[in-house]
Amino acid sequence: MKTLPFFCRGKVVRGFGRGSKELGIPTANFPDSVVERLPADISTGIYFGWASVGGGDIHKMVMSIGWNPYYKNTKKSMEAHIIHKFKEDFYGDVLSVVILGYIRPERSFNSLDSLVAAIHNDIEEAQRRLDSPEYRKLRDDFFTPTRDHILNGH
Ligand code: ADP
Ligand code: RBF
Ligand code: MG
């Protein structure tokens, strides 16, 4: 995928309210304007990268891009689970992410348990891959404010 790494940001909006948080995997949803600007060659699927809320600390994240086949959504979404325990919700804050690598395609599951187990595997894979020196270096490079606008050409 030639457009990776891909950097984007947007205000966190309310998602489908399905209680992901109760499952221990809250996902911060990006607004439609950000979903619509995704480059064509970023296919739907599960990705990993780095994330920062409101310009704060940088954390590992996993992201789902697509139609959530388990729920048969009709609207494409982009949602990030940040691998960090936050003290409170951050709806309305600016979420910045850099998407670095692809994990797997989106798929449907026979049960919610199987979906949750798959997401836990994704989190483990992201944890492991983001520890490589190559991705650790990008962590520092990508979030320096002076470089943001250079990256995606606006
Ligand atoms: P929604 O359907 O509105 O997206 P979720 O159950 O997915 O609801 O919860 C998402 C919200 O939880 C985020 O918008 C954010 O405010 C909050 N949140 C707290 N911790 C995290 C986290 N580690 N990763 C992502 N969102 C988090
Ligand atoms: N939804 C799906 O329908 N199929 C998937 O394969 C899938 N994988 C996901 C992987 C990750 C890392 C995350 C954060 C979400 C994923 N989702 C998937 C979205 C999930 O259905 C959504 O976050 C729900 O709101 C969880 O209850
Ligand atoms: Mg969500």
From TrEMBL:
Pathways per UniProt: Cofactor biosynthesis; FMN biosynthesis; FMN from riboflavin (ATP route): step 1/1
Gene Ontology MF terms: ATP binding; metal ion binding; riboflavin kinase activity
InterPro entries: Riboflavin_kinase, Riboflavin_kinase_bac/euk, Riboflavin_kinase_dom_sf
Top-rank EC class of the record's enzyme: transferase
Keyword Kinase: yes
Superkingdom in the source lineage: Eukaryota
Cited function: Catalyzes the phosphorylation of riboflavin (vitamin B2) to form flavin-mononucleotide (FMN), hence rate-limiting enzyme in the synthesis of FAD. Essential for TNF-induced reactive oxygen species (ROS) production. Through its interaction with both TNFRSF1A and CYBA, physically and functionally couples TNFRSF1A to NADPH oxidase. TNF-activation of RFK may enhance the incorporation of FAD in NADPH oxidase, a critical step for the assembly and activation of NADPH oxidase.
Protein name: Riboflavin kinase
Species whose genome carries this gene: Albula goreensis
Biological classification of the source: Eukaryota, Metazoa, Chordata, Craniata, Vertebrata
